[in-house]
Structures are given as structure tokens and as C-alpha cells.
């Protein structure tokens, strides 16, 4: 009897059954889904095509780390979202954009005023820097003017009093500071009217006395440095020279003789 050829037992020889013809995949044929249910990632629950790719598709749809490098659902890990052009926008920026612009302007102003009093021009500059429109800024600042929250005249008077008695600044220096803060010249002039010549001369003398105590060197050089220090604080040349001569004369008889020998016209004061 002729024996079977090798391979008959395995079904791989001459009597092996031909392989079944390949057929296209149909819903329910997923070998990984024994229940016969359609994979929701590849087919919708209604049988329509899905995203495909299972977990990988879910990650690409926003369930994974995403383009920002953080785990979340379709956005960066800090809760921000993308805007036009792909740039992220923080939650705080979204909240500010959704707020009433007048409310935002008032909050900015109050934060500025909590540090120190401000002029209207300073508050307007702070609002413009934060992107508040001119119309909204004017509306808020006009209201603050009405209720007295901002008052450039009161600000100027307080500034003159504080900076003159605290720093010894003269009218010229005070005027420059107030103008840099946006105070109108008319308001500046009214505030400086309270600072008369007698008060400024007395302050200049007191400054000269204190400065002479700490300045060392040859008498001529000392005199020049102290006069220059007073001039930088805004005192006119004549006021500065007289104040230093009087302060020298009050120290001793020797210094008084030196003061008499000093020619005020020989000193060139720094320009202001």
C-alpha cells in the first residue's frame, strides 16, 4: 500500500484543503471584539465611519498630550486654549476679554492708586498700556474726577509741600516734576504760589548748613560744591550763593572772613 506523502497529517500536502478565499472585513468581525460590537473608534455607534486607530485616534483628537506637551483634552495643561494663528491664550486673558471693559479700567486705576496718588495723565497712560480704549478710559477718568478720586490740583499741592519740606526742592525743580507727570501748567502755577520766596530762601540756607557739615576739601572747592548742590535742587544762582555765604558766616569768624572774600560772579552754576 502506498503510504501517504509527508505533510498529509498536517494538511499541508497533496490532500490539504485549499485555503478559504479572502473576504472583506464586515462590522462585527473584529477578532479583538468577541461580543461582535463595532469598535467605537473605527465605526460610529450608528455604523458610520469613525476616526479609526483606536487609542491613537483618541490621542490625536485631543485626549493625549497634544501639541502643547501636556495631558488634557484638546489643549495645554494650564487650561488655556488656542486662538487664531495657533497661539495659546491663558484663562486669565479669556476672563479679562469677557469682562466689562469699564470694570477692567476701574480695577487698573484702583490698583495704581493703592500704591500712591496719581494724576489723571498717569492713570490714562496706565490704561493705554493695558489696552483700554480711549473712550472707555475717558469715561472712567471723568467719573473719578467727579467724585474726587483723582484731583490734579490737590495732587500738585501735596506734591509741592512734601517734596519741598522733605527733599528741599525749589519751585523750579518742583515745576519740572509736576509737568513730567502730566499736570497742566496752570495747575502747577497755582500749587507753587503757596511756596513764597522767603520760604525757599530759608530752606536753601538749612540745606547749605547741612551740606557744609559733610563736605571736605579746600574752602573754594567746598563752596563751589555746596552751591552746585543747591542749584541742582532748583534754586536760582543768587539764592544758592547767598545761602552758602550765610551758612559759612554762621559757622565761625574765620569762615565769615572767607565768605566775604568769595565773589559770587566767579561761580558758574549748572544749567537747569
Please write out the topology.
Blueprint lengths: L54 H9 L17 E2 L5 E2 L1 H8 L2 H15 L4 H10 L4 H14 L4 H16 L3 H10 L4 H8 L4 H18 L4 H14 L4 H15 L1 H9 L11
Antiparallel strand pairs: 1-2
Would you give an account of this structure?
With 272 residues, the chain is mostly helical. Among the domains are: 98-150; 151-195, Arc Repressor Mutant, subunit A, CATH 1.10.10; 196-272. The protein is 54% helix and 1% strand. The protein contains twelve helices and two strands. It has helices at 55-63, 91-98, 101-115, 120-129, 134-147, 152-167, 171-180, 185-192, 197-214, 219-232, 237-251, 253-261, and strands spanning 81-82, 88-89. Strands 1-2 form a two-stranded antiparallel sheet. Helix 9 (197-214) packs across helix 10 (219-232). The longest helix has 18 residues, at 197-214. The chain is elongated, with a radius of gyration of 43 Å. The protein starts with 54 loop residues before the first helix and ends in an 11-residue tail after the last helix. The model is unreliable at 1-5, 7-16, 31-77 and 79-86 (pLDDT under 50).
Number of helical segments? Answer: 12
Return the string of H and E elements.
HEEHHHHHHHHHHH
Low-confidence stretches: 1-5, 7-16, 31-77, 79-86
Instruction: Supply Rg.
Output: 43 Å
Helix fraction bin:
40-55%
Q: How many beta strands in the DSSP annotation? A: 2
Kindly report how far apart the N and C termini lie.
130 Å
What percent strand?
Answer: under 5%
What is the makeup of the main sheet?
2 strands, antiparallel
How does the overall form come out from the CA principal axes? elongated
Structural class: mainly alpha
How do the strands line up in the largest sheet? Answer: 1-2
Mean pLDDT across the residues is 75
Amino acid at each position: 500500500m502506498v503510504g501517504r506523502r509527508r505533510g498529509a497529517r498536517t494538511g499541508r500536502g497533496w490532500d490539504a484543503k485549499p485555503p478559504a478565499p479572502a473576504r472583506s472585513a464586515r462590522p462585527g468581525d473584529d477578532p479583538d471584539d468577541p461580543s461582535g460590537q463595532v469598535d467605537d473608534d473605527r465605526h460610529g455607534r450608528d455604523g458610520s465611519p469613525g476616526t479609526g486607530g483606536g487609542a491613537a485616534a483618541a490621542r490625536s483628537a485631543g485626549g493625549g498630550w497634544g501639541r502643547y506637551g501636556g495631558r488634557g483634552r484638546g489643549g495645554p495643561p494650564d487650561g488655556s486654549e488656542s486662538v487664531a494663528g495657533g497661539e495659546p491664550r491663558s484663562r486669565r486673558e479669556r476672563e479679562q476679554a469677557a469682562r466689562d471693559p469699564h470694570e477692567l479700567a476701574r480695577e487698573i486705576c484702583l490698583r495704581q492708586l493703592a500704591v500712591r496718588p496719581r494724576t489723571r495723565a498717569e492713570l490714562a497712560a496706565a490704561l493705554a498700556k493695558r489696552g483700554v480704549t480711549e473712550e472707555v478710559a475717558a469715561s472712567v477718568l471723568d467719573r473719578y474726577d467727579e467724585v474726587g478720586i483723582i484731583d490734579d490740583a490737590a495732587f500738585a499741592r501735596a506734591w509741592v509741600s512734601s517734596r519741598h519740606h522733605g527733599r528741599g526742592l525749589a519751585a523750579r525743580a518742583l515745576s519740572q516734576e509736576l509737568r513730567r507727570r502730566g499736570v497742566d501748567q496752570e495747575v502747577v502755577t497755582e500749587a507753587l504760589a503757596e511756596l513764597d520766596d522767603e520760604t525757599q530762601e530759608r530752606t536753601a540756607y538749612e540745606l547749605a548748613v547741612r551740606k557744609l557739615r559733610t563736605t571736605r576739601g579746600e574752602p573754594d572747592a567746598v563752596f563751589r560744591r555746596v552751591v552746585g548742590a543747591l542749584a541742582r535742587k532748583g534754586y536760582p544762582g543768587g539764592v544758592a550763593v547767598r545761602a552758602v555765604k550765610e551758612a559759612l558766616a554762621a559757622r565761625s569768624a574765620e569762615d565769615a572772613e572767607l565768605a566775604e572774600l568769595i565773589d559770587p560772579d566767579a561761580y558758574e552754576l549748572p544749567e537747569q
